[in-house]
Automatic annotation (TrEMBL):
Record protein name field: GTPase HflX
Family, similarity comment: Belongs to the TRAFAC class OBG-HflX-like GTPase superfamily. HflX GTPase family.
Species, as recorded: Shinella sumterensis
Assembly, per entry: Monomer. Associates with the 50S ribosomal subunit.
Record: residues binding Mg(2+): S214, T234
Residue ranges constituting the Hflx-type G domain according to the UniProt record: 201-373
Amino acid sequence: MRAVVIAPVLKARGKADPTVITRSDEARLEEAVGLARAIDLTIVHSALVPVAQPKPGTLLGTGKIEEIKAALDEHNAGLVIVDHPLTPVQQRNLEKEWNAKVIDRTGLILEIFGRRASTKEGTLQVELAHLNYQRGRLVRSWTHLERQRGGAGFMGGPGETQIEADRRLLQDKIVKLERELEQVRRTRQLHRSKRKKVPHPIVALVGYTNAGKSTLFNRITGAGVLAEDMLFATLDPTLRRMKLPQGRTVILSDTVGFISDLPTHLVAAFRATLEEVLEADLILHVRDMSDPDNGAQSSDVLRILADLGIDEKDGAERILEVWNKIDRLEPEAREALVNKAATQPNVIAVSAISGEGVDALLDEINKRLSGVLVDRDVIVPITQLQLLPWIYDHSIVDAREDLEDGNVRLELRLTETEAAELDRRLGIGGKPVREDWER
């Protein structure tokens, strides 16, 4: 379908907050065009539209409406995407003025999510968000009922009975979906409790959409998650168990990409998925450093994390910034960025495409999750060899010797907490077993 994309630029009122990083109007328009192309629309015209005083009925002024009408006629386009929230009345009035379909930012994001969802959980989440969005716009769906006229004893406007019936139908669907998603949430909680019994640390990837999370996920785990240069190329969360180079096993979680002005009900619908982030031991905030607006994108991500309950103080300990796509920078800019990252304790510069910096990232992940390691030499009796898988999952095994009597000697490095747990499992009361390896 041929489409026109417009980004209304509302005149700012009062002084802007200097601490809030905002993106340029041009970047907003470019992102809106990218969102539209993500669902295979042909963009024939795009423009920034200044709005001095928003009109309650149409948002835009009469002159701008006529300009866009002329662009639609010139390019034979039947769809207008408005990169701004529209009320149901504004959407309906603009459709009448332009004689074309109108979609606002929320509707466009929902359309993309609907196409990307591939699992039952993802489909449920998108459907719930879409129904909540659609509920306030039912009047648009029933214009054909205006031909009906109420007889004696009927109050209200034409078609009102049918609209109210449809609202009740939608509400019933919403309640049903919320129950199903609650079951999803309980199932996820059950899976988490099972993982905690064999506790592997969880590392969650978060970031603005198209920051390169899925490419980095594939680079680290060798998984085949879809990764394209496209907004919201992946939607459903993916978890993989992986071993760090030092031997520690972790679970890596790839989540849905964030975006500015993400609809509130969409965040609520995806809370079951985003709970993986809340449970994570370490959060990797992946940033596209080749994007001029990466600062504003970072602010949007941190704002959504704060909405989820990860505050700034907590984030400083749990969030590691990954400055991605350094391969796209000019040599001088790339070198300056890498040097800057090296001076900051919570930053690692990488290229998920070339692999540069990934080894340093894995080392930092291991360091963050392991804490202070202690050396242990232990003998695992033949009667307790079932502990070996646990030991290999929770420690770094530097040496192993299979003894003639069936026992196994291990030279280990592990955290103090895991050392205490190993002593408990071996039944040695927390006292380390030291042996002379030459004997």
